[in-house]
TrEMBL record:
SUPFAM superfamilies (UniProt xref): Thioesterase/thiol ester dehydrase-isomerase
Taxonomic classification: Archaea, Methanobacteriati, Methanobacteriota, Stenosarchaea group, Halobacteria
Organism: Halorubrum pallidum
Residue ranges annotated for the HotDog ACOT-type domain, each copy included: 14-126
Name recorded for this polypeptide: Acyl-CoA thioesterase
Keywords assigned by UniProt, alphabetized: Hydrolase
EC number(s) on file: 3.1.2.20
Superkingdom classification of source: Archaea
Molecular functions per Gene Ontology: fatty acyl-CoA hydrolase activity
Length: 166
């Protein structure tokens, strides 16, 4: 139940799906003409937040961001395509997978550049954490996205713990 006593019900992976695009311009590049990591993280946070709001029909705030993998650069003039979706929920939290890929709009080529997992907390009208819907994946495509995110987060956490001998 949320703060009004209403059961938030369920929502689907697809209901949260968000895609944004950003043209990489000079203000968001480093001295090599590539995307600044901070700019990419900013775009990812916005995309994840929109996915969380679409899913929960609530304002959301960033609670955490897991290890970020910068797989490859985004070059000046390329388009960054940022995709996010909710794949898991807690009582008041939403886990969102966010992926970024670079697109050369002139050649039609794409390649992955960045990935991470975010956790957002939904806020009620009074600004305190409130319940979120349970996530469902009614289609094979949605279930595949959800399974991919769950396994990807497991692999990422396993790699980090092995790297630091935790």
């Amino acid at each position: 139940m949320d703060e009004t006593g209403t059961d938030p019900g369920t929502a689907t992976v697809a209901e949260s799906y968000t895609e944004m695009t950003e043209m990489l311009l000079p203000n968001d590049t480093n001295n090599l003409g590539r995307a600044l990591g901070g700019a990419v993280l900013h775009w990812m946070d916005i995309c994840g937040g929109i996915a969380g709001m679409r899913f929960s029909s609530r304002e959301v705030v960033t609670a955490s961001m897991d290890h970020v993998d910068f797989i490859g650069p985004i070059e000046m003039g390329e388009v960054a395509v940022i995709e996010g979706y909710v794949f898991n929920t807690g009582r008041t939290s939403l886990d969102v997978k966010v992926d970024v890929h670079a697109e050369d709009p002139l050649k039609g080529e794409e390649r992955p550049t960045t990935t991470s997992f975010f956790t957002f907390v939904a806020l009620g009208d009074d600004g305190s954490p409130t319940h979120v819907p349970d996530v469902t994946a009614p289609t094979p495509e949605e279930q595949a996205l959800r399974d991919d995110a769950i396994e990807g987060r497991r692999e990422q956490l396993r790699a980090v713990t092995e790297r630091y001998d935790l």
